[in-house]
Design a protein that fits this description.
Length: 220
């Protein structure tokens, strides 16, 4: 009985070992097949992607067209700097007086010789009228002296005195006219005036600044 009992367990254990071997071998083969399939698929995919991009043509670029026309073009350069007017002065009065009228406003463009300021000139005008009357009287006296000299009844002294008086009166008229002209302030050239520095009724002394004028047409 003992030999029979010893043989049966050995045969059963060997059968289980063979069965386990085939199971493990099958699993390993299945894993190998799966791994080989995955690797092969990846290689196939990478190769297919490379071939796709290698044979793919880039899309056509979209462009816009216009008709070319000749045109004049002046190149420019942006820069930061300071420009000044070629001509610019502070206008001042030459004689004293009271401001009677301001004939300009700020940033106004004016022409040369345009009157910008008028000082009170009532006294000077009256003096000029009186002197013109005196000059006319002296000129009439000179005319009479010349006529008497022509007739031979006049003296050289009388003629010389009449001529001197007429010349002096004429010179005085010119002087008073110059004084009267100084009661006006005129623009020395074409330009743009700034903000007035004076007010109507203000007393101005010789040299007082009235306004600045600049020629903005030419800069430097």
């Amino acid at each position: 009985m003992c030999p029979g009992i010893d043989i049966l367990p050995v045969a059963g254990s060997r059968g289980q070992s063979v069965k386990r071997f085939f199971i493990i071998t099958g699993i390993l083969l299945l894993l190998a097949v799966v791994c080989a399939g995955v690797v092969g698929f990846n290689l196939f995919r990478d190769n297919a992607i490379k071939q796709f991009f290698a044979t793919m043509k880039p899309p056509a670029a979209t462009v816009s067209t216009v008709v070319a026309k000749p045109a004049s073009w002046t190149p420019g350069v942006e820069a930061i700097g300071t420009v000044n007017a070629v001509r610019g002065v502070d206008l001042t009065v030459e004689t004293a007086g009271i401001v009677k009228d301001i004939l300009f406003h700020a940033n106004q463009k004016v022409t040369a010789d345009a009157v910008l300021l008028q000082l009170d000139d009532a006294v000077e005008k009256a003096d000029l009228v009186a002197q013109k009357a005196q000059a006319a009287s002296d000129q009439a006296a000179l005319t009479r002296a010349l006529e008497l000299q022509r007739r031979g009844v006049g003296t050289d002294a009388t003629l010389d005195a009449a001529r001197a008086a007429a010349d002096a009166s004429a010179a005085q008229v010119n002087k008073l006219q110059a004084v009267l002209d100084q009661k006006q302030l005129s623009a020395p050239f074409n330009g743009t005036v700034g903000i007035p520095k004076i007010d109507i009724g203000q007393y101005l002394a010789p040299g007082n600044s009235v306004v600045t004028i600049q020629d903005l047409d030419t800069m430097r």
